[in-house]
Amino acid sequence: MKHVFHHPPEPSNGTKYWRGLGELNDTPEFRQWLEREFPPGAAELNGDEWSRREFVKLMGASMALAGVGLTSCRRPELHLVPFTKNVEWTIPGKFLYYATAMPRRTGAIPLIATTVDGRPIKLEGNPLHPASAGATDTFVQASILDLYDPTRSKRFVQKGKGSTREEFEKQIAELRKTLLSDGGDGLAFLVEETNSPTRERLRAELEKNFPGMRWCVYEPRLSVEGNAAMQTAFGANARVLQKLDRADVILALDSDFLDCGQGDLETVRAFTSRRRVSAPKDSMNRLYVVEHRFTLTGAMADHRLRCPASQIPAFAHALATKILAGTNDASLASLVETSQDASNTFDQEWIDGVASDLMAKPGASLVIAGPTQPVAVHVLVYAINAALKNVGQTLIVRQVPRNAKTIDIAQLATEISDGRIKQLFIFGGDPVYNAPRGLVEDPQTELPLDWADLQKKVPSIVRVGYHEDATSELSQWHIPLAHYLESWGDALTARGDYLSIQPMIVPLFGGLSEIELMNMLLGGPKVQGPELAQETFRLTNPPGDFQTVWSRFLHDGFAAHVQSSDQPASFNAGAAATLPRDSSSLSAAPTAESPEIVLTGSYSMDDGRYANNGWLQELPDPITKLSWDNGASISPAYAKKLGVETGDLLRIAINEKSASGQQIKRELVIAAVVSPGHADNSVTVTLGWARKMPQFVELPYAGANLKEKPGLTEQAGFNGYFLRTAANPHVAVAGGKGIESVQVTKVGRTYPFSITQEHFSIEGRGLVREATLEGYRANNEFAKKIPGGEEQLPHPPPSLYTHPPLDAPQQWGMSIDLNVCTGCNACVIACQAENNIPVVGKLQVAHGRIMHWIRIDRYYASREPFNQDRGVWPEHPEMVFQPMPCQHCENAPCETVCPVNATVHSEDGLNVMAYNRCIGTRFCSNNCPYKVRRFNYFDYNQRPVGKRKLVGALNIYEEYFAPLTTKGAPDTMKMQKNPNVTVRMRGVMEKCTYCVQRIQEAKIAALARAGASADTLIPRDSFTTACAQACPTEAIVFGDIKDPESRVSKMKEQDRNYRILDYLNVVPRTSYLARLRNPNPKMPDAKDVGIASLVETLPE
Amino acid sequence: MDGAPAAAQEVQEAERRIAHVPLVLNRRNFDWLTERISGVIEQPAPRWWWVIFAITASAATFGLFCIGYQISTGVGTWGNQIPVGWAWDITNFVFWIGIGHAGTLISAILFLLRQKWRTSINRSAEAMTLFAVICAAIFPGIHVGRFWMAWYMAPIPNNWGIWQNFRSALMWDVFAVSTYFTVSVLFWYTGLVPDLATLRDRATTRIRKFLFGIFALGWRGSNRHWRHYEMAYLLLAGLSTPLVLSVHSVVSFDFASTLVPTWHTTIFPPYFVAGAIFGGFAMVLTLLLPARAIFKLQDVITPQHVDKMAKIILLTGSFVGYAYTMEFFIAWYSGDHYERFAFWNRIFGPYWWYWWFGMLFCNVVSPQLFWFRWCRHNVLVVFFVCMCVNAGMWFERFIIIAGGLVRDFLPSSWRVYHPTWVDIWTYIGTIGIFTSLFLLFIRFLPMIAMSEVKTATPEADPHYGEAPEIESVSSGGKERTR
Asked: What is the ipTM of this complex?
């Protein structure tokens, strides 16, 4: 209650106290002024005191009023409140964790978002749900940066001019009236796949309101062919799932199913669960891969066959013939007999080996077809699996309802071209950039039309997107889209489980979510919170009190009562046989004169949606180690034929003939990446690069992408979509639909690439140690017998120095299992997000100054000797990955050389950095045998990087202009920073800390819990580092090595455990589990498998 | 009967020929020496001096600009990266420190060994030492990421209670170089005192009189002064002698105490010291050969001096060649794969021509010319070899430092280093600083120790007049007329 001040009574001695001359004189003017100035308070100054009675009377009246009128009208409690009003359950600086999910085209990933002071800073997998089990992938980790992208769309735009939300709402209301009058004829939606039940519900309502509307889903990387085959073979609502934990033998045909970036972490984990070997008696699955380029899956393969993508159908047929011969399966026979036999183009021994291995494991084998393969291949592969009795065993089916009224983008294009679409809504995506070229033929000119042409034909387009991009430019309205961390929603996982999406922060730039916009169009009441998602949730008939179940749903992140279970699957061979077979006609093998062009997704840009994500732009491709760019991968032999090296520009020309006989030439100039292990006469172009966003003057990371005509040195990436047509979306080869010829020629100029790892040969050094499963069983200590292994050192060797005592009750260490690491890069981005690692830009990467604290070293190994320096490259090598964080050596060589004691050892075994003490001599980095230390050569966190500045004739990167450039990062970028990790300044050295901030948090929690008791130990395996937490295959394990029961100790006890460069006696705390491969001894290439550390040139 | 006198005569004759080729030719007397050497300072600067000074001072100024730019913007303006954390910066540091070795060697070790011929060259060699050490000291200072925090390397008591890491060779470096510089300055200045007094006495302007007066410390040339002076000089020479050997040994510890293949080598201390003396003598000759010609000091810096220095270059160059060979041998003999690879990489890797040209041709092959008397006495050949050695020693340091880092343990981190214009101009800038300082030195201070050279003349010999007759070796310069 407000304290009412009572003036003391006037003293009786006659002294008069006054507060102003006016009061003293007490003139009528003054009284008048008082009345005017303080109407309610005038009485007080006039000397009238408030009586207690009067006060109680007034208070009572107001309380009565409040109680009578408003008690039950409390506003619903929304947990999105501005941080200026402190929330009672928050402690400033302490993290809060909320469950949410990231919607993805293949199924959402359940997440736990870490928020601090009201802003999300880090995403982790939801350990309660199997779709994540605590793990994440690169895109989840990087999506937090998209939320804070300072160039995100911030305004409502009408015809290129800024507008307001109110104006837009008015327009929508009017549009609704028109649409209601004509039944929505002419209304169309072009959306991305989000797997949101609420969106489906609202769509159904829209369809009720506007029966004429069209709904088109377009995702460049969603397998149309795969879905078509699935629906034909298993029913309209079937979703086929692989049970890789049950498969002993797997054959992947052009399938990169181990690419975690595709969102199916469960499958990846199921696969690696069969590659975990802790003792020689354990078994392993066996993976055969047939592919044209090295993929993450190919790197994991036990046997890998290089095969042009256009030859996969032929291979599938050859294999089917063999399987048919072995099984005499009737339905397989119905699919195989009609086709030509092309099996003699492949190594018969190889196919025989695979086929007999598959047939030896009926019901425990699996053949997987790649998403870009034609429908016929998918169907054939299903038939093979059926013949192998895998359907219902390693292949199961779940029913996920599909709306049959969905059309594809080619159908929508036809409708637009015919002028039937009057009002188009585009949700997300960037079809001008990524829609197939040549969607439909112009009736007048007979020339093919691209999406950009078609968009001009639609009278009104409302586009909702993250960026004002090329699509927005050709739309009448652009609406900022809310990030998934800013909006309410829901989504289904790949297996159909129901997840909640709750916002972590109010939309930073006032964006709308898709469902909000659909609700607007439905004329629904304005939504304040989760109403739309709640409505959908209500339809699932949640048991018990709705509020409680809803809260539980939000709290857990998923609805346990919504269960979709595995269905018994039956392969419908009859339906499959009815499929058109045009794509099964086997094209001839590509030649050097007429190569094939294969378009694939990118490991870092996906389909282009992460174009302005600096972390992902800078993330080296796991295979080519290219940063900030894509390229055309070709085999060393083909490169020699073309006379090019990595970085030389190639001109790819595809000559087409349209249906009406017009000649069309599609051209792309792109730099070559010579890639060992690539199929000959095949060119792989990764999609998703060089996306332009013209509405913005500058994008901090996309480099000069935004310039209309970038110079070659300034662009980041090449746009492969120029070659992607509706007729041939994945492979362009002479003889394909309408393609007359394909040519690849040398341009004669080079392009500056930034490659983070230039040397791919392991040079016979025992860094990655590898053996076959048989070899391991014969010699389980093989990892230690390699020269430089542990047994060569006398322990403990003499030392001149006194070392830190390492006597803390808990000692930290890490173990990395090379056998299950897929090289997916999730750890790299997780580390970057956790530890405030700056982005340095393409030029700085080229200079060798990338800042990643953990990198994935990739080596090629081949039994055939090769010499990279002299240009003798392996054609068919193995690929091995090795994640490389700071090894936290107990005898750290970096510590002895630092003149100012800036890097020292802690009692719990960490090699720690004191940034404030570091003066930046770089001596520690020179003396680090693992080269894991990173130096801030410029003020990467404070100055613009990767941006050019024009000063007269000079055109210089801005980092070279400090201190003339403006200091400071954009505010939104600061919001992402982890407050527990120092943001480093220029001139200091940094490196992996084993996430020391997490160790300290855990310690503080343990101490707080212990109170006066002595039990101050952090509970076993109760926390982990960012990289280990993100790892989808649990290859990285961190913990207390002093505790023999901890997971890391158990791993380090295994006989495959080794420490690299152990002979230096630096005693690293990070150790590796040697890699194993499981070759089939009957295969012709069995002797070339598992050899990464066998080619030993160390002299005796 | 006649045998003994004949033998004695022969011995006498031989002694005459061996010992007494005079160090100052043409029987130049004290007056000539004073006039000639002081004259360089007292006469107006010739036009060439201004031209060269303008060039070198411009280079120095631009070098200082580059340093300012680098400090204000970041070490990233250089080409350094990961794995090559040190490149031109530390290469230049070791290069200049190496050059700084000849001066103290000449003044201290040759003094203790009673090598009178040092008197003609010791002053300028010492000055060169100081300037080279100044140039060297720039690099460890500016190469750090946070220049403004470089004082953390100074052992200043502080309230954080953090002390320096005395296990770090870089720390030893700080002390070694600063000690060396301090002692060298003292030694040089002590030697200058009698000459400063000479200049004070000859000064014609008040300013010169005043300044030389201050710096001459009241030298009057009394017997007592000379006694104290010579004792001080001897003590300083004794103090400097171990420093000559220690400084570059400590510098080599920066590398030898690490575990980088090609750095981690026990041969480094003697190898570096020999290399430093080698490079230092080449630089002394590089500076003195033109100065001698320009200032007509052939009578003081005689062919005999050049010959002796060329022999030292040949000797130390052979040490260096031996060290190179031993490195390869030990790399092979050790059986260490990484070590073997690193040396293989040195000759056939990305910097192969640095090794073939810089190390092999410049440092090992070119000094072999000095086996021939004709070469040692041909000024042009000597100058050519010296320039080769100057370049070769820079290449050697670069190959050791950057060449060792480009390809070490993990092939995944291998990356070739490329310098930027800032790297190059910072180095050229230090050459500018070095030459500018040297030009200022010859303008304002006697470049030859007058008082010491005089001790090498016959007049200084207490047995003057009894010496045997000698023939003139050099035609000498023209008499200067007053």
From this structure: 0.89
